[in-house]
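Dear support,

I submitted the protein below through the web form. The confirmation email said the job was done, but the results page showed an empty box. After a refresh the structure appeared. I'm attaching both so you can tell me whether what I see now is the final result or a partial one.
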Amino acid sequence: MPYRHTALTLVPASHPASSPELSLHEVMDRLGPSVFAGLLDVDGRLCYANQAALQAIGSTPEQVIGRLFDATPWWQGCELSQRRVRQALASAARGEASRFDVRITTASGATLAMDFSLLPLFGPDGRVLWLIPSARDVSERDQAQRQLLLTRNAVEQAHDALMQVGPDGAFRDANAAACRLLGLTREQLLRLRVSDVDTQVDETQWPLRWREMCERGALRFETSLRHPDGHEIPVDVSVSLVSSGDEIFAHVSVDDLRERRAAERRIQQLLQFDELTGLPNRQLLYERLGAILQTGAETGVLLLEIDRFKRINDGLGTPIGDAVLREAAQRIAATVRSIDLVARRGGDEFVVVMPAPSVPALDTAQTLLNAIARPMLIDGHEIHITCSIGIASAPADGEHADTLVRRANAALHRARLLGRNQASVYAGSPHDDDPERLALETALRRALRDDQLELHYQPQLDLGHGRIVGVEALLRWRHPTLGAIAPDRFIPIAEETGLIVPIGDWVLRRAIEQAASWQRAGLPPLRMAVNLSARQLLQPDLTRRIEALLAASGLDPRRFGVEVTESMLIANFDQAVQHLNALRALGVEVSLDDFGTGYSSLSYLRRLPVDVVKIDRSLVPDVSAPAEAVSITRAIITMAQQLQMKVLAEGVESEGQAALLAASQCDQMQGYWFSAPVPADAVEAMLRQGRQIDAALIGRRSRQRTLLLVDDEENILAALRRLLRAEGWLVLCAGSAEQALELMARHEIDVILSDQRMPGMTGVELLRRTRQLYPETIRLVLSGYTELQSITDAINEGAIYKFLAKPWDDEQLRAHLREAFAMKEMTDQNRRLGLEVQAANRELAELNRRLQTLLSAQREQNLREVGSREAAQELLDAMPVPMLGVDDEGLLVFANAPARALCGLAGERLGEPAGEQLAPSLRQALEGTAMLVTLAGRRWWAISRLLDGNARGRLLVLLPQTEASK
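What the results page shows now:
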């Protein structure tokens, strides 16, 4: 808008006409360097510019005087300023003053912000005589304003709430974040005081807070702020004192702690609670259990594990598995009391802590078993699970949290071994409080490094001929200070720590080297058997490493065997079968160890690539064993032999056990009765001495026919001995059934003649037991008492061959006994023939198996060779030059396609003498000298090379003669 009131009027004076102009010039030149001034005529031409203005643009008066003002250098740098100056000139010509901010460019290239004014100067008649432009440098003011604006914007856009508070506690200013935090507008907030929003400060406390801030200069504290909605906001407050002249106020920065507190709660939740189920985790479990145990109250700890949970994850997927765990957690929590602690220890394991239990822990465990066993319906799947529970109690089983949980875990392990889906109460374990266990682990690592381990070998004997046919390599550890350490002491440690893998590799290498040493020494052939660990059986390169060890040592693979247990195979059946098939293909014998103690599944046994079934020592009967025990052992022997497997009984510790096994047609045995595990030199001595089982024990030696008389009356036994003296039989007498069983264990009895009524065990019961233990023995009863039913039953079931009455007729008795011996001889002959047939069948089956393996390997080799020959034939046919092959007998055995075309050879002519099939010139070239020949009207270089590798003979190559070679 025009500033007419600021216009200047030139009043008359006594001075000359130019006097006002000169006076004005002097005034303008004396202005400061930041004030520009000039004089324009009414047409806007510059008549004068002061020194400050000229210096700013680096010009002299002559360069600018007389030019239109808007065209001078002051306005060349900013088009907007130039337009506004033109508008101001037009307004000034009408007598209107103008004032605005402009930007000019100096000679140095800098841009200055100027407060510009253009005033009209009026004459006495009221007309505009001159225009006076002036400008003042306000760059610093603009810079300060911009800085202030930036600061204000920064404060306004800050994430933290920022406020100014006066000494009276009233809010003087606040940014947008502060308004958002408190849910107020800026106007509402500036009407309040600190005591209106701070829950910890009222009007009486504010002066104390202000005084403390003035003394310290700054404060930092946490408090809560009131929100209009009624909730409180936790905040972190930083206050600093600000002084500006006489003015003083507090600058307040407020940090909202809600997200931080929520993150802290989340972290605490993650640290102490299981994310999947929401139950306390392992850390919180031990903290709370420790606190409960400090009270000294009786406390029960139940460790629960879902049975075979892995099959749910593998079969239905992890999301279903997670849902099952959540459902299980809910059922556990719903089953126990509200004061009981339910936690998830990890995986599929849960822990229930019962302080001062109101019912026995075993009852609670049974309730939990029933709750978990109820069907679950998850995502359309009906899922049935069970669990196993281990129980420990304080203070009986320990007074520390880790001890109680560890012992509950031991009880849980026992529950799993008992078949799962049941609870087991901790009953003590030899390893629970074992301070030497960690020391033994460290020592075992050193033992492997320092070669403290050694192998002993327990002989395995053939019950057909009684000779040593193999040894089992058994690991021994002799510590330099502790002495011999039992395998059952350190083998579990090796399995738990993973040391079993390097130890197993050491055993394989050492056993193979020892067997190879015996082989090179020319000792009788025997098979070295080595036990594989479960971890070894999972190694993908197991077969390759064993093959490499056998090749490096030179040991015949047929003299090596591996032993595995049922549990190892069932855990990873497919991979185990793959390994065992590969080992058998090498010729390595595979034994199934501890048969009868694991799953003993017939379907698995039928599918397993096993050569030998090893009956566990717990199933090896003796003469005092119940008849059903003997029947189980015989059933295992028969079953394995029907599957074309040999049977080896381990743990044989008495002559009676060996005799029973031989009578049951068991193939092999090992045990302390023949020999304990011994060092290699002791085994070598046995082999050189030809040590073996007594042939009489296994029925291989011809012997005198044996009769066993059993009667509790000595005069009866004496009379029978006198009667039968002339028969030439070996007559043994026993006064009771127990004595009879002992004699049968030491002697092979052909015929047994027993009284019926004897103390302890009747004759029929004795003969029933004899039938179970020694089924080939002919069994007769001689008694004066007729118990019709028991005698009839015994005869019908085959326990008794004949019943003879007392008093007896001597001739009839001798006739009956001779008939019994004749039947026994026939039975023995049939049994020998049967054994020979079985042995021959097994040998034939083994030969057939090995033959099939060799044929399969040969077939694969042939296929590879055929493929190689076909590839070579295709390659040579693709060669652009003729090539011919002649073997060392002079037969033409090869011609590629160019050669067949050149020489007119057909496929059926291969294999005939080369001299008859090739041109005379080519026959000369076969002698080995390169020469030129003419074939099909063309000249060829014929070059012959001798072959002395796998292919013997000569290769003839024909190269066409080129123009350059003529």
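Response: this is the final, complete result; the empty box was a page-load delay. Residues 158-261 form a domain with the Beta-Lactamase fold (CATH 3.30.450.20).
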